[in-house]
Design goal:
- The protein is of the alpha/beta class and 253 residues long.
- Helices cover 31% and strands 23% of the residues.
- The chain has a seven-stranded mixed beta sheet with strand order 5-4-1-6-10-7-11. Strands 2-3 form a two-stranded antiparallel ribbon. It has a two-stranded antiparallel sheet with strand order 8-9.
- The radius of gyration is 17 Å and the shape is globular.
- The relative contact order is 0.17.
């Protein structure tokens, strides 16, 4: 099972389209994400929609992706609130639940597979995808305890100078135990500078219950590239094209 968070607007994109509907190499971002999930043969993929949701729905081919169902986030109250909106769509069956963002089209199929395996092997309540960035500005930072286990994730706007020095950052992609994650979400508060319910705060809730959280550190941090501006969208497309060239070079060798 998986949830794709796709309800945001993308206010700095200078477009009326939702960010996930914007094209990268001729395809909407969210289509790239769905294609990268395709080989996992997931039983259900809930896409959380909100802002101009018809624009997102219309860009998903349900004949190709029949396992897609939609969930609506009626108000933009943060990523934890968005995932909670998918509760009914996902259902109450047990399993591992992948959560990723509809505006991160470079996370590769084998990375999603490794994340599922990491959560299974580490026997943890959740597993967080992370990367070590030369410049992690804008990303949430992973704070580990004295034993190296993940203790919390701090969003940049809420971080002090010491935490901002941390290079390991959150890639916005997780595996959670289902359906237990939905109970965890109800325990997250919005006492932060954005006044939002942050999904990364689930880590602290799990830790308060004595649960451990696993991590998978990406070898290639470029997979975590997103875009918040028109210029960053151009960079994202350039990196996507480079990925494709690299794949063709490997398959042709």
């Amino acid at each position: 099972m998986a949830v794709i968070l796709a309800a945001g607007k993308g206010t700095r994109m200078k477009s009326e389209l939702p960010k996930v509907a914007l094209p990268v190499a001729g395809k909407p971002m969210i289509q790239h994400v769905l294609e990268n999930l395709e080989s996992l043969n997931l039983s259900k993929i809930a896409v959380v929609v909100g802002y101009r949701q018809e624009e997102v729905r219309n860009r998903i081919d349900l004949n190709r992706f029949p396992q897609v169902v939609f969930a609506e986030q009626t108000e933009q109250k943060g990523t934890a609130h968005a995932l909670l909106a998918a509760k009914d769509a996902i259902g109450s069956g047990p399993g591992s639940l992948l959560v990723t963002s509809g505006d991160m089209p470079l996370i590769q199929p084998d990375t999603f597979e490794k994340l599922f395996l990491a959560q299974e092997e580490q026997k943890t309540a959740a597993c967080v995808l992370s990367s070590v960035q030369p410049d992690p500005t804008g990303y949430g930072r992973l704070v580990r305890d004295a034993d190296g286990f993940l203790e919390r994730i701090v969003e940049e706007k809420d971080a002090d100078d010491e935490i901002r020095k941390i290079k390991e950052s959150n890639a916005g992609t997780y595996i959670f135990e289902a359906p237990g994650i939905f109970d965890i979400l109800t325990k997250i508060d919005s006492s932060n500078k954005q006044n939002e319910y942050y999904l990364p705060d689930a880590v602290q809730v799990y830790r308060s219950q004595g649960r451990k959280i696993g991590t998978l550190v990406l070898d290639d941090p470029a997979q975590t590239l997103g875009a918040n501006t028109v210029d960053e969208l151009t960079i994202l497309e350039e990196r996507y094209n480079r990925f494709q060239s690299e794949k063709q070079a490997v398959s042709g060798s």
